[in-house]
Amino acid sequence: MKKYWIIFLNRLSIRLSYKFNLLAGMFNNVIAIILSVFTWQAIFASSGQDEIGYFSQTQMMVYIILVNFSMVLFSGEGIVRLGQQVRTGKLTMHLLRPYSYLFYNFAELLGGKSLEFLVYLLVIAFGVFRGFSPSYAVLLTLLLIVNVAMFFLFVSLLGNLGFWLIQMWPMRSIFNAAYTLLGGLLFPLNLLPKGFYHLLMLNPFALVGYHYTRALQFQMDEREIVWLIIVAIGWSFIFYVAYQLSYRLGLKKYEGMGA
User: Fold this and answer.
1) Three-state SS across the chain?
2) Are 43 and 131 in contact (CB under 8 A)?
3) Structural contact between residues 73 and 117, judged by C-beta atoms closer than 8 angstroms
4) How far is it, in rounded angstroms, from Cα 26 to Cα 229?
């Protein structure tokens, strides 16, 4: 565990060292959120309704802010990493070192996303002062942890395509588009027709986006959160098994030199 702790601290130190990149990234995210907020304000103004999809205008604004922030923590930036290392032959360096490549990347993720993770914990802490029960806050925290692990395994599984695909950057764009639509970033998923909603409601993007945001807004009870935790654990198991199988197949194809 010590080696992964060192990896975590190194990544966190690098993140804090490049303050301009940190601030620039935050600025871009804020601009995107502001545009979404203005869009929904215009929708409410033109509709003349006080509620849309059981969301008041205030609730919708809070939802849009929180759900779009989720894309900062649950991002697809790791998709292209393995493909780059396969093409350059740098994966060999990791294979020769005494650690798990999967756990190495997880430690790097936690170090690089510590600030975003802290923001979520602060939102939960704020919710306790606004009426969350201690048990509800604990379940929210547990769901956050499980979601982070589940989404990491999901991204890692997609990243294994780098063993077979020459260029992985198109996958990043496809991933972001899928997240925007299936995670509820453009609109709450319950605005979809019921058939589509029930089909898509438990997809990985919805768990970390739409559902977790609703839970933060206290629009779920504890039983629903427990169910989401079970679903996220189920997805994690599926992604982990699929990751291990695809990783082993990919290593058989890997030649250990740059392309």
Assistant:
1) CHHHHHHHHHHHHHHHHCHHHHHHHHHHHHHHHHHHHHHHHHHHHHHCCCEECCEEHHHHHHHHHHHHHHHHHCCCCCHHHHHHHHHHCCHHHHHHCCCCHHHHHHHHHHHHCHHHHHHHHHHHHHHHHCCCCHHHHHHHHHHHHHHHHHHHHHHHHHHHHHHCCCCCHHHHHHHHHHHHHHCCCCCCHHHCCHHHHHHHCCCHHHHHHHHHHHHHCCCCCHHHHHHHHHHHHHHHHHHHHHHHHHHHHHHHHCCCCCC
2) no
3) yes
4) 29
Q: How far apart are CA 45 and CA 41, in angstroms?
A: 6
Token representation of residue 211: 């559902």
Digit-coded pLDDT (tens) for 69-103 = 888 888 888 888 888 888 888 888 888 888 899 99
What sign has the CA pseudo-torsion 143, 209, 9, 108?
positive
Query: Computed from CA positions of residues 217, 222, 226, 227, in that sequence, does the dihedral angle turn out positive or negative?
Result: negative
φ/ψ of residue 201, rounded to 5: -65, -25
**Residue range 49-65, pLDDT digits in tens:** 878 877 888 889 989 98
Average pLDDT estimate for 150-170: 90
Beta carbons within 8 Å of 215's beta carbon, 6+ residues apart: 140, 143, 224, 225, 228
At 253, the amino acid letter reads K
